[in-house]
Amino acid sequence: MNTDIRRRAFLTGATLAGVGALAACTSNEEPPPAAATAPQGAQDAPGKRVTVGFAGPQADHGWLNAITVNARAEAQRHSDVELVVAEGSNDAATQSAQIDALINRKVDVLVVLPADGKQLTPAGRKAMDAGIPVINLDRIFDSPQAYRTWVGGDNYRMGVNAGNYIGQQLKGQGTVLELAGIDTLELTAQRTQGFDDALANYPGIRKVGRAAAEFTVPTGQARMAELLQAHPQFNAIWNHDDDQGVGALQAVRQAGRSDFLMVGGAGSKAAMEAIKSDNSVLKATVLYPPTMAASAVRLARLLGQAKGVSDLAEQEIPASVTTFSAVVTKENVDKYLPVSFE
Q1: Is the dihedral of CA 311, 312, 315, 318 positive or negative?
Q2: Domains by residue range for the chain, with CATH
Q3: How confident is the model at residue 5 (pLDDT cuts 50, 70, 90)?
Q4: Cα distances (Å, whole numbers) of residue 235 to 205, 242, 261, 273
Q5: What is the pLDDT of residue 46?
Q6: How high does pLDDT run on average in the chain?
Q7: What is the C-alpha separation between 228 and 205, in angstroms, rounded?
Q8: What is the rounded radius of gyration, in angstroms, for the C-alpha atoms of the chain?
Q9: CA–CA separation, 248 vs 213, rounded Å?
Q10: The dihedral sign for the CA sequence 7, 321, 60, 120
């Protein structure tokens, strides 16, 4: 990722009745920072112009904002891509209406990060039935008939890697806590399952407490304070999300605690800088990179141009792409700082 790209505004507004603002961006201007700007490949030569519709939840925390930043910046890299961005919404009915508007606009490809995969499955099916390929980003639809390709993180492996790191740091002995994300999301269940399965490899380690926050600073602080009060002694905690981790660390400081280690999740810039400084209980974070949005736009462009991925033998775009949940520590943080998010 090129981190010295200068920031500039590049959105032009458009309005669709009843569904809020849509913004179109083309690539004749420089992309903002925090974008996935991998080296150009054989398929980057300009081709048929592709209009990509993008619909996602409201950017109510840093990771979701970084998703939209990465999508827009990737579109800016390509002179043959127009990205039409629907206003983010956490309401399934509103997001469904936005997808309807993008279908009616006859975009070539649709990239959707659904607020709720189950509730938005019919909207994905509708687009596919209309002949518009759907790239399902992150939160997965209930049916593969609702999307052409899924691009997302490995939530289960995220939990596994966090659990194994903690197990190794504790040398197989001790007690741990878990500060999860939103419990109604399937991804939270997958992260917890991976964490529990990894801890099963360390019979001397017991998970003695768990609480669920909501990916926000206030809920992270509140739930962490409750865990600290309920557990005056423990050795490690895994926090699923670095945004809520800001609040969790505030609670730790307020409690004057430094007798355990903490592992974060997602890979925010604040978390990586804390890991690099090594001045808090936060010693590692497990990546869930928002650069997946750039990959989704890149694949949408190739789908719209009937191209494959140049480094693969197959002529078609893969049906799924799963990012890897690397563990970021003080030893390797400089490698991953360029892909962190605000």
Answers
A1: negative
A2: 12-152+291-311 (3.40.50.2300), 155-288+328-339 (3.40.50.2300)
A3: very low
A4: 10, 19, 6, 22
A5: 86
A6: 89
A7: 18
A8: 21
A9: 10
A10: positive
3 state DSSP class of 111? strand
pLDDT at 223 over 50: yes
What is the residue whose two structure tokens read 């920072």? Answer: 33
Handedness of CA 161, 342, 300, 120 (dihedral sign): positive
Q: Give the C-alpha separation, 245 to 251, whole Å.
A: 10
- Write the pLDDT tens digit of every residue in 244-290: 999 999 999 999 999 999 999 999 999 999 999 999 999 999 999 99
Helix (H, G, I), strand (E, B) or coil at 313: coil
pLDDT digits (tens, 9 = 90+) for 76-122: 999 999 999 999 899 999 999 999 999 999 999 999 999 999 999 99
CA 264 – CA 143 distance, rounded (Å): 31
Helix (H, G, I), strand (E, B) or coil at 154: coil
Does the pLDDT of residue 163 top 60, yes or no?
yes
Whose tokens are 């992260």? That residue is: 191
What strands lie across the sheet with 282-287, from one edge to the other?
Answer: 205-212, 174-180, 236-239, 261-266, 282-287, 327-328
Q: What is the DSSP string of 81-103?
A: EEEEEEPP-S-HHHHHHHHHHHH
Tell me the whole-structure pTM to 2 decimals: 0.82
